[in-house]
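check this:
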Amino acid sequence: METLAICIGLGIMAIAITVAVLWTVEKRSALNKLKLRQPKHC
């Protein structure tokens, strides 16, 4: 039972890390798009 709980915990952690990484990447790309849209002479 303990090994199963550890496996589930590691799986949840891995999913959480993946989601966090994907979220930060999406956020950065969105910020870059906003920067590109803004006129450069400002």
Notes: DSSP finds one helix and no strands in the chain. Residues 1-34 form one domain. The chain has one domain: 1-34. The two ends are 62 Å apart (CA to CA).
